[in-house]
Amino acid sequence: MKIRIDKAAKKAGRKCYVLDARSIGSKQTYFETMQQAEHELRKIQNTRSAILSESFSWNFAKLVGPFSKDPKELIPGSYFKYEYDRMSKGAILPTCYYEQKEIIKALLECKVDEKPLSKVLVRNLTTGHCQFQILEQLEKGGQKGGRSIKTLRNMRTVFNKLMDFGIACGCRADNPFKAMKLDNIRGDDLEQQIKKINPMDIQDIGDQIKKLYDHQVYIAFQFSIMTGVRAGELAALSWEKIDFKNNEVHINRSYKKDVGVANVKTLTSNRIIPLKIDLVRQLKELYIKEGRPSLDSLVFGQKCGKPHHTGYFRERLQRAAKFAGNDTIVWHDLRHYYASVMLDYFGDDIWTVSNLMGHNDITTTTKIYGHWIQNSKKKEKLANAVMNINF
Question: What value does the CA radius of gyration of the chain take, rounded to a whole number of Å?
């Protein structure tokens, strides 16, 4: 915490003495005089000293505090209170606040030395606990009894934030999660990924969906493999976002069960994706078949106007996949399929693929799809080499 002078505010005749308490999870406050700022600083330091002396005996349940959508029910000084204040800023809470609830819940349910983590003192957690007990339980958890590396990385990000908050609160001096290692490939994940998005399999699954379900489900499937949109973005898509004139779709909304339809998580997720003429024709047919609904209504929603439940399309995809002889595919694999097609076509132009996917950083694209990039380069090198071989 420190006090500084805002020169621009002083020149304009406004309050210019700034107490910056963001390092402890608070905010910047402006005062008219240095004495007022110093008085508030001493007040915060005294209160903080009392909290720090107590917090060394906090367990994880105390550090986290109860989750609530209502700020009045949140405990001051708790992690959820801090995150609520940081994210909301008077607006509707973003999706990631609710995602943190699920991740923190999974963490607190883990056992450390046969004891729920919620009851473990924050100061007693070690890197060994994280690596050999918590990580093992998290890997085997999830709805299907096994979480992906991507999900585990997201969880570790939240855990790191939680432990950094614990350090700021005086619960401990270091962050044991930062030293925790995750393997890049687990078992035959890579082989399974490639197998699941084989073009012939995708075509067979599409044929089965067309036989089994109505036109909306089939077009949702086609739309996903030709745009790579996330499941939440598909569920939140309204007709006004489809530009039939320029053959493109604007993605800037997403659906989450606890939140409803809201803005996408990151700025880069706001994107424009070009559409193939054949897909545009199918969308026009669907629009006419559904009676030319209002432009703000959902493209792939229920007849009542609400989004389908989160497993609606996944369940239909997996049933069709079983008929096609592939019982391992999930809806997100359609996004992987789109990425693999784009990488095959654009080659080394990773920026284009990253923008189309709505990734926050180009390194996300290379980390997730690096093996396709490598395979594409190998094929190109091999093709060039064969030209120079005398048979």
Answer: 26
Question: pLDDT digit string (tens) for 105-153?
Answer: 999 999 999 999 999 999 999 989 998 899 889 988 877 677 877 788 8
Structure tokens at 8: 């621009």
pTM: 0.62
Q: Is the dihedral of CA 138, 143, 144, 147 positive or negative?
A: negative
| DSSP β-bridge partners for residue 111 | 116
Mark the ranges of the chain whose per-residue pLDDT is less than 70: 23-26, 47-53, 89-95, 144, 183-196, 348, 370-391
C-beta of residue 351 within 8 angstroms of C-beta of residue 333: no
Q: Cβ(325)–Cβ(264) under 8 Å?
A: no
Q: 3-state DSSP: the chain helix, strand, coil percent, rounded to 5?
A: 60, 10, 30
Q: Which residues contact 176 (CB under 8 A, 6 or more apart)?
A: 125, 126, 127, 129, 130, 163
Angstrom distances, CA of residue 363 to CA of 221, 228, 366, 374 = 28, 18, 5, 15
**Longest Cα–Cα distance in the chain:** 89
Phi/psi for 145 (5° steps) reads: 75, 30
